[in-house]
Amino acid sequence: MRMVDIIQNKRNGNSLSDEEIKYFVRGYTDGNIPDYQVSSLLMAIYFQGMDERETATLTQAMVDSGETIDLSAINGHKVDKHSTGGVGDKITFITGPLVASVGVPVAKMSGRGLGHTGGTIDKLESISGFDVEMTKEQFISNVNQFKLAVAGQTGNLAPADKKLYALRDVTATVDSIPLIAGSIMSKKLASGADSIVLDVKTGTGAFMKTLEDSQALAEEMVKIGNNLGRNTVAVISDMNQPLGYEIGNANEVREAMEVLQGKDIPDLKQLGLELAAHMTVLAEVFNDYETAYQELEKNLHNGKAFQAFRSFIQAQGGDVQQIDHPETLPTSAYHVEVMATRDGFVTAIDAESIGIAAMYLGAGRATKEDVIQHGVGITLKKKIGDKVGPGEAIAILHSDDEHPTDSIQKVQEAFEIGKTQPTTNPLIYKVIR
């Protein structure tokens, strides 16, 4: 088999055989096929696409390129949740304990943040002592006992994806639906869950800016999961403004805990319950979505979800005094108000700009080497549809710099204020099964 023939096949719009796909993935991972030939094939895929079988085969080949996590020692039906990334997205801290509170095991591999979207691991590490570095035996033991554990991603999951993504990044082939879907799903499948719920974001703070692109990605990932033996559901949710009111690591942990203790923060509560309901139905704890939603909502108010969160944090070395007294979590030296420059209604908030403003403060990373400052972040005082007067605060910056000029400017640019109250976007656009 020759790589040049595979490139020519795809260039001409033909479907690649399973053998051709496995050959190029294995050869590139092993270093036997050069960058320039794989770059050429990626560009051909970008323009010609891949059919459902090709995409599933590509995903499985990336899974097979490295380790897979064996979760068979965990009792019960394991369900994972993955978000395509957003601003203020602390939903894992709500869905995980909710699902655990009804006895469904959640064994989660999470990453660190890069760019304007925060990482789950970074947020959890704002809790003193919390440790994501566990042995496999400890990880499995924690899930069996507490029904929830979060570990850092191993570097050897789907190494083919890591190499291919780095090449896509420098050859303008990142935004290809089959390649994006295969990249995400290869890591999820390698992580060992029995079923997967995907939270596919759409809007200004998401990777996919349009609903059409988000739906295409969601449908592709659901097909991959189902074709490769994992029941998969995708929820397309809005990211045209940040989720909740808090952006930043310790800030987001505090806000998630408020929801787990029954506070009604509408978008966080609704999305958390939505995803958790689908997860528990896939695990066959509940027969239908409506029953699951209602039963899980009870656990937000009776303390069971919060207790599941507290037990999970304690099991991984976290200081539960900070859970019982969230005011002791890290905070910043300065709290700087950002004022509205005119009166009217908030008609839009550019979520990506808010995320970048938080990154400037130190809540995120511009490069992998940057050090996270857990106490900094942003509190939104206004959301889309809210009335605002001139000189009224639209946000508070939690900063270790007394004059965070760049972040102030970025937040002011993110808010659009008009004379007419806008209609707000739905939080959930569509569910794809």
From TrEMBL:
Residues 345-418 form the Pyrimidine nucleoside phosphorylase C-terminal domain. GO terms for biological process: pyrimidine nucleobase metabolic process; pyrimidine nucleoside metabolic process. One of its GO terms (molecular function) is thymidine phosphorylase activity. It catalyses: thymidine + phosphate = 2-deoxy-alpha-D-ribose 1-phosphate + thymine; 2'-deoxyuridine + phosphate = 2-deoxy-alpha-D-ribose 1-phosphate + uracil; uridine + phosphate = alpha-D-ribose 1-phosphate + uracil. Keywords: Glycosyltransferase, Metal-binding, Potassium, Transferase. InterPro entries: Glycosyl_Trfase_fam3 (IPR000312), Glycosyl_Trfase_fam3_N_dom (IPR017459), Glycosyl_Trfase_fam3_N_dom_sf (IPR036320), Nuc_phospho_transferase (IPR035902), PYNP-like_C_sf (IPR036566), PYNP_C (IPR013102), Pyrmidine_PPas_bac/euk (IPR018090), Pyrmidine_PPase_CS (IPR017872). Its cofactor is K(+). PANTHER family: THYMIDINE PHOSPHORYLASE (PTHR10515:SF0). Belongs to the thymidine/pyrimidine-nucleoside phosphorylase family. Homodimer. Catalyzes phosphorolysis of the pyrimidine nucleosides uridine, thymidine and 2'-deoxyuridine with the formation of the corresponding pyrimidine base and ribose-1-phosphate. This is Pyrimidine-nucleoside phosphorylase. It comes from Radiobacillus deserti.
